[in-house]
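Minutes, project huddle
Topic: does the predicted pose make sense with flavin mononucleotide bound?
PN asked that the exact inputs be recorded in the minutes so nobody has to dig through chat later. Recorded below.
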Amino acid sequence: MATRRDFIKIIGGGTIIAAGAAIGLVAYPPGVPDAAAAWRNPGADETDIRRKALSYAILAPNPHNMQPWLVDLSQPDVVTLSLDTSRLLPATDPYGRQIILGCGAFLELMVLAANVFGANVDIALWPEGTPEPMLDSRPFARVTFNTAVPRNDPLFDHILNRRTNREIYDMSRVPSQDDLDQVIRASSISDGLHGGYENRPEAVAALRDIVWRGWELEMRTPAALAESVNVMRIGDRAIAAHRDGLTLGGPLMNLMGATGLVSREALLDPASSANAQGAAMWKEKADTSPAFVWISSDDNSRVTQIEAGRCYARMNLAATAQGLSMHPWSMALQEYPEMADLYAEQQRYFGKTKDAPVQMLARIGYAPPIPPAPRRGLDAQLKV
Ligand SMILES: Cc1cc2nc3c(=O)[nH]c(=O)nc-3n(C[C@H](O)[C@H](O)[C@H](O)COP(=O)(O)O)c2cc1C
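Predicted holo structure (tokens), as shared on screen:
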């Protein structure tokens, strides 16, 4: 018989997902649309190559799955990309660094797809200047499409299988140096960015300890916890209605949400039993990190943040190509005041600083497959 533990898994900052029929397994109650439909045959019906490429770009990894991208297609052959400033994460990502990494990931997927469908692209980053220190609605990229012979980067083939996989990783299979070297090589596209990895047991144990303390601190920081809980979609109907954020899906969660057993109030209380269970499960995830990968940079400019996001997308795709799963663990990379000491400790561990930081840190290893995360679809992101 399945136990409660078989069904409930905790994802994100204390969020719960019923894994028995996790999101995207099309186990929605009758009449509830599939929130992950954007992953099936993206762009198949599109005739405009820009829309075709964008149908892949919207599948990019991005913080809390906020999908904050706004697309302007009003100029022929040009895609202008900016941010929907109502979709930022000011408590945990006050300067928007992580949001911009997600923009870089979007751009990289769009470029991979554009090349495959027969376009070269010219990219102007921040064509109207960079937003400092806070983000605003200025474009982060203006991309011109020029017809070209189709060109396939092998990473394109893995876009539809790429996931952020938060499962328990197999500790008996540590990714080899060769595999990790290959992941780093495939992601290296820019000067000034450096990929690194660690799979030696003692060093990995030290990293597990830091990432875990980051998780605990976020849980104890009310504004940070509230930011995650606010974008939590409890039950399949809410997931299908929003198609973004952190998802608590599947039959058991539908029931627990409907009966009030899981509620925003409980999730906002760090001492609630839901969050106590969550902590135990997240600790197990941290403890089953057989290796870590990271991306660091020589500066922390807005251009570099975009490039780091492109690099992360490639890293995640290259890992997918190798049968490896990845899961970013960003808490101690976040720049809010309560995290400052741990942020500095983690950067010191890597020999880095806030002006030339580690931009991304993720566990990497072998894990059971999972379904795709929801997406809102391209039309929801078009600027009218
Ligand atoms: C900059 C950045 C930071 C992220 N940090 C975390 C994190 O700390 N924990 C986590 O579980 N996922 C993290 N993610 C993964 C996103 O939550 C994930 O991409 C999003 O939910 C969509 O899911 P998908 O990648 O499976 O499509 C991060 C992604 C990006 C781009």
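Observations noted during the meeting:
- Residues 12, 61-65, 98, 101-102, 105, 163-164, 166, 327-330, 373 surround flavin mononucleotide (CB under 6 Å).
- The chain has a mean pLDDT of 91.
No decisions taken; revisit at the next huddle.
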